[in-house]
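Troubleshooting entry. The earlier prediction with pyridoxine-5'-phosphate gave an output that would not parse, so I re-checked the input for stray whitespace and re-submitted. Clean input:
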Amino acid sequence: MRLYINIDHVATVRQARRTDEPDPVRAAVLAELGGADGITIHHRRDARHISVRDVELLKRTVRTGINLEISSREEMVELAERTRPMQVTLVPEKREEVTTEGGLDLANRSVQRSIVRALARLRGAEIRSSLFIDPDPLAAERTGALGADAVEFHTGEYANAVRPEDRARELNRLAAATRLAADAGLAVHAGHGLTYENVVPVAALPLIEELNIGHSVVSRAFFTGMERAVREMKAIVLGAPARVREPGVWAPPVGF
Ligand code: PXP
């Protein structure tokens, strides 16, 4: 299991004052020292947190790998071609949203066309590609058909579920989608809304090979420092399969 740390919110604090601190480049160094397997950054059209300068500098300084989240718009794909991150995750982007609200709408023809164009260019630039989608069987199948290398399942619904039965239902949905995606030959990633408290059942799902976690880790880092916050998350993620086998810690989803 790889743990990619999303450092967008370090840049969010910087942009609150439009100054030069805290610098996400320094956060990336500390995240790597804490055991991050990679650094995730989301460059949005409005550059509300990660800027082009950040993408360029991180590309030159990160020693693990960069997962660049972008929309499939022309200028975003150009940025990826120019900076050549290890991986690009294509995400939907709405200007007014606080954070990415759902997965790509792969049933929409114009979204499909835009994704196909972006994937062809990423392939040409030898950049690994992933599509951010909801844990939905049809979306998983469509991702396979579009020829991406990987899929990242949106765990927001799971994270937002409050009642245990709702959380179990969302976990089942996620588990089923991971199986379909793996059967379609895709590498399986997951992320969004994962915290120190809710990550264990997701990290224990056997087919998931990469988690992208940001807000919770950066929030803890305010108090403990980045390196320690990452180390603590990494220990939880790596220990998850053993923890779910302990009776009473977590009830496995139906059919598992
Ligand atoms: N994965 C994707 C595609 C995202 O857009 C985000 C948020 O930027 C994350 C993972 C990380 O989510 P969070 O900050 O809630 O951990």
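This one parsed fine. The beta strands are 2-6, 38-42, 66-70, 87-90, 128-133, 150-154, 187-191, 208-213.
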